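Chapter summary example.
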Amino acid sequence: MNQNINLPILSLRNVGVAYRGYRGVFGRPFWALKDVSFDLHQGETLGVIGRNGVGKSTLLKLMASIIKPDKGNFINYGYQVSLLSLRLGFIHYLSGRENAILSGMLMGLRKQEVQEKMEAIIAFSELGHFIDQPIATYSSGMVARLAFSVAFQAEPDVLLIDEVWGVGDAEFSQKSTKVMQEKMNSGKTTVFVSHQTSLIRELCSHSVWIEEGISRVYGDTTHVLKEYHRFLHLS
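The structure predicted for these 235 residues follows.
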């Protein structure tokens, strides 16, 4: 495990994100995030939990610097952060190979580096000849396998995973879990958004619970999940 686990990689303080193109009640901007505060540390595996539509995906986009906060402070202390999401980064009319190159470059690799890693990407994804077929012909599981395979080869400082875990067949999910656990044991910093609380409990040392754009509880995963499940039961 990384000896610098107490050093922050990312810091969020009272962060808010507003979507001004979407007007809510009385024409006001819609605040996807209202007040989020926590630190991400080196070597940490952080779980992000919460119900649908509470701002989890927006939070990951912010952490990946795809969007900027409209209030509060977000600091990246000089680390490369990549977002793995089925909602981002793939062009449906391009082949899996072409998308792998684009995705790898978005994660910080040079085109030549992705090409050199292509055989490993194909082998891990188990896509075979489908790698040269358009992404539009892929199932969601095949897209997830390609996305994971590129991300594992890119080796960013911080990997953000948005609702991808468990997509696809059980065998590949088990293989991906094993590889991710190996990376975690070597000090890889990872953030998971998942509805699978059992997976969050297994993989994440710390978690943050987001509710209506607010970080309700942040800390030890066991404690966070206890508070979250209590809230779900009461609501």
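To summarize the output: Residues 45 and 190 are 5 Å apart (CA to CA).
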